[in-house]
Amino acid sequence: MGEVLSQQEIDALLSALSSGDVEADSFLAQEEERKVRQYDFKRAVRFSKDQIRSLTRIHEHFARMLTTFFSAQLRTYVQFTVNSVEQLPYDEFIHSIPSMTMINLIEAPPLNGRFIIEVNPNISYAMLDRLLGGPGVEIEKVDSFTEIEMRILTQLYKRAFASYGDAWESIAEVKSQMAAVEVNPQFLQLVSPNETVVLISIGVTIGEVSGTINVCLPFVTIEPILSKLSSHYWMQEANRRNATGNSKEPLKAQLMNSSVEVVSLLGETTITFGDLLHLEIGDCLTLDQLVKEPLSVMVGENKVFKGQAGVSGKRMAVQVLHRVKEEEQ
């Protein structure tokens, strides 16, 4: 397909095929021979398209949570949107970010090791300017962050990225927390240079300032839950939740017809083993329960009600007075 045929060449080719001078099978064989794709082993594709779509959905949820958080913190128009999700070598990611930037190292068990949430300096300074009472303007050149600036931004990002685990709630129970902060990517050797990572680029708009936040997830980090990043798993989970919801009523009806043993406890006492051996017919035991005190009504091994002993017709009965409080149980 490197060359475009003219109309005369197309007509000549059709005539040759119809006359039998050229066999169609020969074209098919040539086409099969040409079906060769170049593969760069430095850019190994380790995530399927289905898994990439799942990661996109997760981080779209994360972007919505960031929009809510930063809109409240900065008190201005803030918008986070997922721009792209791609897989590339870790070394390529490190060389693509600025030499002076906010690199937040996040730990999120049960995910292995750490991953990166990198915030471009223009976004960081716009947030910082807004927090300190300014309009949230962009600074053209960033040479370094001062200790006070680092302290303010670190505390802000620590609160913001603590909700990252909530974006994974449909896949797994993930608890995220910030482990460290770095500003120079050249000092950060998270995984080997050729390790495949997923790079999620999130576009950020703060007033009139725009930039990106990059989430870098190494393959080894999300490998423990990789099997859950598929539409098949999502469908199974949805069916399981629906089945659970639909089965509540039959279970409830079945429980309503279950029989439970209810016992009224007249009282308790403690005697020695020697006294127990010498007990005879007619002996009396003094209980720790006064006659006027309500009796404990047991359901199984739990004290559930307080009641009063009496008779109903020709049978002994217990009248329920009130339910026992949870702390008394």
Automatic annotation (TrEMBL):
Presence of keyword Membrane: yes
Pfam families on file: FliM (PF02154), FliMN_C (PF01052)
Organism this protein belongs to: Exiguobacterium alkaliphilum
Protein name: Flagellar motor switch protein FliM
Domain annotation Flagellar motor switch protein FliN-like C-terminal: ranges: 254-324
Keywords: Bacterial flagellum, Cell membrane, Cell projection, Chemotaxis, Cilium, Flagellar rotation, Flagellum, Membrane
Family as reported in the entry's similarity comment: Belongs to the FliM family.
Gene that this polypeptide is encoded by: fliM
Protein localization: Bacterial flagellum basal body; Cell membrane
Key word Protein biosynthesis present: no
Classification of source organism: Bacteria, Bacillati, Bacillota, Bacilli, Bacillales
Chief location category: other
PANTHER family reported for this sequence: FLAGELLAR MOTOR SWITCH PROTEIN FLIM, YOP PROTEINS TRANSLOCATION PROTEIN Q
InterPro entries on file: CheC-like_sf, Flag_FliM, FliN-like_C, SpoA-like_sf
